[in-house]
Amino acid sequence: MTSRRCLLLAALLCAIAGPVAAQTKWPTRTIRIVVPYAPGSSPDVLARLLTDKLAQRLGQPVIVDNKPGAGGNTGTDFVAKAAPDGYTFLVSTNGPLVYSTVFNPKLPYDPFKDLAPVTLAGGQPNVCAVSNDMKVSDVKGWVQAMRDNPGKYNYSSTGVGSMSHLSVEILKLKTNSFAVHLPYASSPAAIFAILQGDVQFACVPPVAVMPQAKAGKLKAIAVTTATRSALAPELPTLKESGFPDIQALAWMAIMAPAKTPPDIINRMNKEIVAILKEPDTQQKLTTAYMEAIGSTPEELTKWMNEERDRWAPVIKHVGLKAE
Length: 323
Prior knowledge:
single chain, alpha/beta, D-Maltodextrin-Binding Protein, domain 2
């Protein structure tokens, strides 16, 4: 009887200690942060700014794994189907996390069910830039060129349903103008397409635009946010340029596979938000034309739902469909 009581007591203690032991054991190996875009894109830059400091805080290596394709949906789907063991995370954006759910009925994942929010990490305006060959200097000239030459111009984006795609589509809608959309795997690729002459303009994150603009290789003419951005204060907003109904923020969020243990989600949130608040992190993000945000998982959930409500009518009105 005494032996049986000892066994029962030991089992009870193991059951009580189990969750604590599981928590203290994580992490025990390399953590992977998947970026569903190519190296050099804004999510990639953000992820690489986080990895070294996360490794120091967590005591294990943290690596970036680029899985571009399908406007960010490929890598996002990969994480949605990954094991929820705390060793795979995601840095994704508006398109794969919200907009694709509206216009792509064959999306192989549901970000609202298959992914767990960690934090809204950062945001930035899209910068609208035009080829020097267009010979326009402002938004009104750009729009007029599209109106005068329907079908003559192509524009690039970071993928179907991305903010860089929607920023131009809403402008086309509001101005009764036309240009052909050519999606690319990343913002650097979208800007390179302008430099190559394959497209004539794009609205993409400033990290890809501003270095080329400062080098005189293309012309940056506006930001898509409601107010001027501290990241490029010299650029007017679309509102200032005569189009008050058009504003958009490109944002980046950290996600995990659904059913990742809450204690791991909370630990990652705590560490990432702390890193984002560090002055040197904020300075590096500013240099890369990004602004740190940092949120709770609950705030990110609320934000994603608000974004879906905000843009779903626009997506449906424009008639966007997966290409």
